[in-house]
Every structure is written in structure tokens, then in C-alpha cells.
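MODEL INPUT / OUTPUT PAIR
PAIR INDEX: 1
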Amino acid sequence: YFNQSFLEQQKLIRFGSCITLKHVATGKYLTSCNVHYKTGSKKIISIKVFASQTLSNPNSLWIVLDYDQKNESNPIIYGKSIVYFLNKGVNENIVISRNYKSPSTGNWEVSCYEHLIESDSTNNNDTYIKSKETINIRDMEYNNFILRSHEFPFTIGNETYQEVVGHEGRVDGNDKWCIELFEN
């Protein structure tokens, strides 16, 4: 029992954990890059989901940060822990805009701020989020938007990206993300 309990503790997502967020429907990783929309906010498109399954790129790695910086290394609690996702590649937090819409689909722009993690699992009696669980991500700061990816591509320069947006509708399959601990 002790060994099993110890192994379960090692799988918990904690403040300070390095993670990846894999879109369940497409298998693509939430990724940030230093590219700007040409319209809308003209901010960094801090989010693109790329087709590569390679995790060696720091732009697909995220650090789970605590809003108050008081809970360092504590486990993340379903529906209660407010977290920031800091991208290792561009050193920015993810945010869903409440002012600018995506030029390609008219959904809310996502760029690189405060998110509440919710479990998607209906049979999970555990309090803490574990690696490889399916979650939803809501922006709790201003607008309660849900992070979504879908099959809409957009192009900037010669590069095509799979769009990630914020929306206000009900949660569906395009809103599900698999959170995984990244171990070097």
C-alpha cells in the first residue's frame, strides 16, 4: 500500500510542475510561438497547436504557477486551484482575450494569464489532478471562456497553424485537454 500511495503522489500535477497540454481530439500539443496576428489585437499568437508529436521544443512546455505564489509544490485541486500556465519557450502566460476576436473564425483570440482547471472525468473521486487526466481550462479572470482547439487553420507568412480560441458555449470534445507531467 505504501508503494502504491508513493507512486500515486508522483503522478500528481503540482504548482511548479512542467507539463504538456495535448488536445484530445487532434493529439496536437498546445504550443506558443513569437508570431503576431496581422489584425485583431496584433499581439503574439501565443498559442498555436502544432502537429509535431515531439516534446523537445520548449514552446510546447508549460509551468503551472500559483496566483498567490503561496502554494509552491502543492497538488492542484479540481475546480478550486487557480493557476497560470507559463510557456517555457516565450516566458509568457496563456490568456483568452475578452476584447479581440480571431481574424480567421471570429472566436476570442488566445494569446500568452489565470485559469481554473476542471476535470472532465465523471468517475474520478480523487481531489487532485494527476498526469494523463483529461481536463477543461477556463479563463476565470474576466470572462469564464473555455479554451478550445478545432480544425480551423490560419496562415501567417508561410506558416499554417491550427487555431486555439476561447468560447462561451457549452463544453464539448474540442475543449478537452490531456495534462501530462513532462520529465526530462
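PAIR INDEX: 2
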Amino acid sequence: MFPLKGRLFLATLSHAIFSQYGEIMAACLNLMNVPIKEFFRESLRKNYGVESDQSFETIFSACASFMFIGLAISFAVMGKLMDGLGRKETILLRSFLGILGSVCMLTSLLTNRFELYVIGHLIAGMLQGLRVVLIIWIAECSPDSKRGLTSLFINSGGVIMTLLVTPLCLPTVWGTQHLWFLLPCITALLATIHLIVTIFLPQSPKHLFIQQNDEEGARKALRFYYGDNETKEIDGAIREMIHENKQAGKGKTSVLDILQHRTHRFSLFLVFICSLVPVFSGLNIKSQYLVEILISYGLSQSNSTIAIMVISAISLPVSFIAPLIIEKYGRRPIFVLLTWLCAFEWVGLAIPEMANNFGWLFETRWIFACLAAILGQSAVNLGMLVMAPIMISELCPHNIRATVGHATQVPPIFIAVLEVFMFPTLRAHFGFSMFLFLATCCAALATILHTQMLETAGLAVDEIVARLGGEPTLTRSNTSVGWMHYGSLWEKEPEPTARKATKEQLIF
């Protein structure tokens, strides 16, 4: 029996399908790299007289970085949008931006102005950032035992939708200089449908109860997502919100106050580590340069696109099992595993890069790159992009989520902007050694998560926060592999009576 049912399933499914316009727009520059690059070259030549290949490559790299500037902008305003407008209204704004960005990409070809595409690419970055709000929204609408499932369900939807549009990017289909604009037409349609669907979905119950003090509205939203007959679950959710609201009332929301609060500081640290994983993974580089990289390893444009399809198809089964195993095995082992996969991806990419650097141009070197990319895509399918949103929704009380989101998402984006902008130069100067450096960074992050990350699967947010702020302290012994309750929030295994007493204290 499928673990999701009723209106929660339909809401999650609609988000999983129709909210993916941002992912497709962000991938457009990579999937349509050759025709869009030719369009940029022609536009720069006609409008600005740019003829030099070196000048063009510099401008093109700068334009590719605009997506990450959009990410930084969205993370900078995300907190105010979440708490000011609300979760639902922020997603409505995201859908509107999706339509606007698609129109910009579409009209760029019609007017032969590459600047319009850059604006659309920047908006695509904003959509990627505001996707965090969508994950937090669906997590707040889900029962405690389904938070990870619904979050990864949406993540898997993005993987599948991107895979479905990839064949359309072949040179024999839409991957030409005159037809690539049809992909933004699809994203405009998806954004429009998502806008309409979102209008009819209720606001986050926690936002209604804690932020707006609307218990009746919160109960109505809970009945929509939990079911009309789930009175016991709804009452339990309301009690959890009461305790979480009390905890939120004792806390402050500035970054400085969070850093001075022992429990909140630790939560901020864990979320920040999770936010760094996508930055040091191969995701950002591949999103802009994967086709170009594969071509440098001996493949043609057409074969590179086919290789990307094969990579996505082989790693696709991970998307189907990830929502289930994150609840069965917990967040921690999954997050540690996917971070190690990112490290091994860089090692795999370093092999053909080293072959290029030393002139060992054997014909099968692209195979190593494809195998490495499968590991990286598997990490994405396991939930790499929703690590931080899940941790924000589980480790942080309602009143500090926006601040933690802003503080942990903005700094990594600046690293990503530099990474994408400087990649061609760094690759030319340092070659495979740069890949090994990034592999070392991912390995370090995996080690930190292995020793410090807490297991939160199935626990209510108020219970997690209460345990974090209680007598048991958070030490490395909490998370050592040798201990049988690996990843527990307790410093040592409490007696059954202690567990019962803690539960009663939380309830009453």
C-alpha cells in the first residue's frame, strides 16, 4: 500500500510534477548548450561586435553565473517572503516568476537579444532558491512520519521531469539554433498549471497557527492534508504546534541571538554543513558545463546529450526508492552516503581530466566521466538538494526557520557563483588537481556529517527541539558508529521510564 493517500498525496503529486519548471529552466543552458552558445555568439557579434573567442568565453561564463546570482537574491528575500507573505503565497510568486522567466527566454531568440535570456537564467536561479520554501511548506503540511517522504517525492519529480525533457534537446529534435526556444514554452505551461493548482491548496497549518494565531484555519488545513476523519492526528498536531509555539516564544530570530543560543547554534551548524554539500559537489559545474566536458573527453554534441539521458536513466531507480528509504533508514545514513557519492564523482571525473592533461587521449576516457556522473546524479536523486530544507523544517523552531534559511543558504551561493564563473580558468590552470581538491572537500563534509549529524526521522519538531535543549548534551559520543543507537539525540540510552517521562513532559 502506498504510504501517501488522499489529498496529501494529490497535493504532493501536483507539486512533484508541475513545480519542476525551475529545474528545467536551470538545466536549459546545459541541455541546449551548443545552440544557445551559438545564439549568444551571434547576438554578441551583431549587437556589440564581439568577435574574439576569448572575449566570448568570458562573457558566456559570466552569463552562466547569473543563475547563482538569482539563487543568492532568492535566499536573501526568502525569509521575509516566508513569514511576511506566507508559504503558499511565496509559491504563487514563484509560479509567476516561472512564467516571466520563460517569456524572457522565449523572446530572447525572437529579438536576438541574449540579455533577455540572461534575465530568464537569473530568474531560473531564483526559482531554484524559492524551491526551499516549497519543501518547507509540504513538510509543514505532512505528518511527522511523512515529512521526508513528501520532501523527497518532490525532489524525485524534478529528476523525472528533467529526464523526460532531455530527449527533446537532441539536435534531431529541438536542440537546434531555431527550435531550442520550445523548451521555455514547456516551462511556461508548467508554471501556469502550478499557479492555478496552488491557488486551491490550503496554507501551511503551522504558519496559520504560529504566525497568524488562527487555530480554526490550522485545523481546516490539517483536515485537508490529514483527512476529515483523522481527529486524533489533528489534535496531536495542534498540541505539537502549541509546544513549538511556546519554544518559539522563548527564542529570538536574529543571527547573533541564534549563535548565542546553544541549541539553535548547533541546528544552524548542521543546516550549514548540509547547504555546503551541493556547492562542493559536481552539480553546479555539470549544470552549466557537462555537455562541454563530455565533448572534451571525445563525444560529439549528440552523443553527449544521449550520454546525459543514459546517466539520468541509470540513476532513475534511486528516485523511486529514496522517498521510502529516508523514512525507513533515517536522514543521517542517507545524507552521509550521498555526500560520499559526491566525493567519488570528482575522483571519477579526475581520471579522464588527468588523461587530457597528460595527453593520454584514449577513446574510452568519456566512460569514466559518465560513470562518475551516475554517482553524482544518484546523490541528487537521494535528496542532496533537499538536505538543508529538511533539516530546517525539523531542527529549527518556526520562528528561526527564515533566519536560519537566509544565514545558511546565501554564503554557499557566492561560492557557487565563483565556482561556475572561474571553472574554465581553474580547469585550464590546475586540471585534474582541482577535481581532486573538490573531492577532498566532499570527503571532509561527509566525515563531519558522519560524526555530528543527528537522526530526526519520525520525531515531532517540538520534541526534537526539547531534546536538543534538555539535560542530555550533544557530543561526538552521540553519533559514534560503535554505539548501537547510532545517530540518537541522547548522549546515552535512556531507561524506558525516562523515555516515558520525557514524552509525558512534552505532552503536558
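PAIR 2 NOTE: The CA atoms of residues 476 and 482 lie 11 Å apart.
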